[in-house]
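In these records, each integer encodes one residue's backbone shape. Here is one protein:

___
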Amino acid sequence: MQPYFFPYIGYFQLIDAVDKWIVFDVVQYIERGWMNRNRILSPNIEKEWTYIVVPAKNHDRDELISEVRIDDASAWQDTIRGQLSYYKKIRAPYYEQTVALFDEITTTRFDTISDLNVQTLKRTCEYLGIVLNCEICSNMSMDFSNVKGPGDWAFEISTQMGADTYINPIGGVALFDNERFRDAGIQLKFLKPGNIEYRQSRRAFVPWLSIIDVMMFNSPGTIHGMLKDYELA
């Protein structure tokens, strides 16, 4: 998977479900994607959610994920911390622990957005008790000369690593040729999260926000239980 910034809980369910995680950073960086932003509760209840954003430096359109750098000209850490203070106002029970984790990660200076996100994943997994066995794709000696379309990347990584199973989020079903994987001796599975819901103070529940939101309202032990709420199709 591409390295996302404090992604939603389904991303961590996928990490928890696999033996090996590949940080997929060798493709074009997508503007307005999940690499440098995610969603948390908005103080404006009608809008429901708002973005938290890590600013990226100007870059070429075809720049790879691994190459896009953080723009530290603005105090983005302070901006996000200010946005997170709303959770204190609504008395989120795990506000202090979550902000402490955010501060621990973001007080370190990272050159690229990918580097920041990898550290975010590592520390969040440690906090939640998830085993993260990962490698960075750009640091591996992979041969992608046979990649012709979006579904080929996972096939090449899986075959070159000798995998017997590849798991992808359910939204990617249309990208993959199940017969091709089967002929290579690889089981192709898709993870579908359950209907995960929890109390967000006195507000109507807003689903699929950043893991930050989940951590604000739930203990690591409770979240660890949520991680098992999925189906493999």
In short: The first strand starts at residue 21 and ends at 23. Helices lie at 9-17, 76-89, 95-106, 113-128, 152-160, 178-183, 211-217, 220-226. The chain has one domain: 9-232.
